[in-house]
Amino acid sequence: MESPPNSPDRKPQGFTTRAIHHGYDPYAGFGSLIPPIHVSSTYAFRSAEDGGQRFAGEAPGYIYSRLANPTNSLLEARMAELEGGEAAVVTGSGMGAIGSLMWSMLSPGDEILTDMTLYGCTFALFHHAMEKFGVQVRHVDLLDGDALAGQISPVTKLLFFETPANPNMRVIDIEAVARAARGHGIKTVVDNTYMSPYLQRPIELGADLVVHSATKYLGGHGDLLAGVVVGSAEDIETIRYRGVKNMTGSCLSAFDGHLLLRGLKTLGIRMELHSDNAQVLAEFLACHPAVQHVYYPGLPGAPGHAVAKRQMRRFGGMIALELKGGMQIGLRFINSLKLFTRAVSLGDCESLVQHPTSMTHSTYTSDERRRHGITDGTIRLSVGLEDVEDLKEDLEAALDAIYAD
Ligand code: 3LM
Questions:
Q1: What is the set of active-site residues?
Q2: Of 221, 238, 265, which closes a domain?
Q3: Model pTM score
Q4: 245-304, pLDDT tens digit by residue?
Q5: CB–CB of 377/292 below 8 Å?
Q6: Ligand 1: residue whose CA is nearest its atom 24
Q7: Which of 93, 360, 381 to mutate to test the pocket of ligand 1 (most atoms within 8 A of CB)?
Q8: Is 308 found in the same domain as 255?
Q9: Do 106 and 139 sit in the same domain of this protein?
Q10: Is residue 119 in contact with ligand 1, taking CB distance under 6 Å?
């Protein structure tokens, strides 16, 4: 007799099967194929004592949706499964996830080590908020395998990085860096937003915690803001009850939890198509005479190509480029595009283009951007799911217009 879909004696199922089915039994309850959206903000206690016991963690049951919600619990179980962690907590945005993690795990006097390049608001959280409350932030070049050991001190608590990094596509060797950090008793946190668990699973490579802006590929349709942290059951409990519940209040609406469950079902096929399209466009851009540099780990000559091949399934949908002539030409190029939409965010079906210096990374001063490897001429493309010939034609027309001048 065949064992039921989620039974432990079944052989591991593929990524997309789990993204569609994990943790939900359609035969239970009313038999609805699609999990219900639980809209309740609060939950009835059977007795005063039952309520007290739930608060004390001595009885099971929901209390209030800022702590946990049944729709979001399913999403959390699915995200933990897909990232290979024990548990997960979902939040109201990616910054809600990163903030809840940081505020609950760090104290004044602690130090966090991080790579040179970070998404603009993460950089601002670290330098404009955490430092204000006595947490030290130090940047290390994590592309240099030996740099980390020399920077760790007795107050270092966390190591945080994005790979590939937003916006310059630096590829960090997760396994090597996590091994070095673990040797010093430090937890490694990876922002996996650019990849999604379909393309890269940092916990399997030794990281302790993974964060996402679920606004991006996980949702996949540009219609919600959300975040998630995945890690050990103990760390997630701390982040949920100290960080989300008491410090940030950054909980997720069950309606958005439902949209995320829907988004996850097509994550695998979307990431395949994002990767197919981006590879074609990166190769096209790399050969165009108007282009100075293309940063895409799927190009054989790219600096992170060897590490990327080892730790990613495919190379994803994000490309950074610089044009000959720098920022002014770059802005003209952005303005000439017709199918790529001028907008921040990423991971949507629609292809997007933006200018990090004046947009996503304007939280850095120009001096900081120079020191952290973000050039003014950088243009970021989030390659969507449109037909690749149409995208190529759009890029080609905009570039040819510039090159003809
Ligand atoms: C962006 N990024 O366009 P939310 N981590 C990474 C991210 O790229 C982001 C977050 C966390 C962009 C958003 S800029 C105003 C728009 C690697 C977000 C934060 O809080 O869900 O936006 O995630 O690069």
A1: 66, 119, 191, 216
A2: 265
A3: 0.97
A4: 999 999 999 999 999 999 999 999 999 999 999 999 999 999 999 999 999 999 999 999
A5: yes
A6: 345
A7: 360
A8: no
A9: yes
A10: yes
